Amino acid sequence: MNAIASYWGRPADKIVLRSTKTSPFGRKVRMALIALGLEERVQLQSANTMDEDDSLRQQNPLGKLPCLMIGGEAFYDSHVILEMLDAVAGGGRLLPRAGLERFRALTRARLADGITDAALLVSYENRFREPGQTSERWLAHQRGKITRALAAFEPDLPDPRRAELVQITLAAALGYLDWRQPLEWRADHPALENWLDTFGRSHRFWSETERTRE
């Protein structure tokens, strides 16, 4: 057993995922846990990023989700956690172990994360500003990131039947677009629409991690 798997497997240490069922980055982690058969080891504990008294701010000073607690030690963000899960599972399950292909996968996953980041900023602009204070220029800037990233994925989509880092990250991003609707993406990107439909049919964790609507 490798060192990280031994650390993960210490029975005295409870493993807690601080997240919510509505967090797109938390959903990435929950999908990966199921895909790797690690979900039974982890307890999901909700967190409120807006609550100053929530212990999340002591666990992750940034107050962001998700945060993985192993005993008293915190690990964040979602990308770090997914790399840890891959290592716990023996490596090479979510992304290549080494070489140029590993860095290509990391780059594509970051691109998918960027879609989610931009969608979050659109959502926050609309949720946290008073009517009349939202910046249309800022919203257009974020939506431009989303549309360019979607277009960049379409010529070279990853195999939707596989549960790897890029697929999980892209699916989480598209699911968040469907939920928060910062823009209408499906009509303009039919290849991605078909890809997500195939991904959802191929993996039980897609429906099992479906968000609870607010």
Automatic annotation (TrEMBL):
Gene3D superfamilies: 1.20.1050.10, Glutaredoxin (3.40.30.10)
Residues annotated as domain GST N-terminal: 13-93
InterPro entries listed in its UniProt record: Glutathione-S-Trfase_C_sf (IPR036282), Glutathione_S-Trfase_N (IPR004045), GST_Omega/HSP26 (IPR050983), Thioredoxin-like_sf (IPR036249)
Keyword line: Plasmid
Assigned GO CC terms: cytoplasm
The keyword Oxidoreductase belongs to this UniProt entry's keyword annotation: no
Top-rank lineage group of the source organism: Bacteria
One Pfam family cited in the UniProt record for this chain: GST_N_2
Protein name according to UniProt: Putative GST-like protein YibF
The species this protein was found in: Martelella mediterranea DSM 17316
Gene designation per UniProt: yibF_3
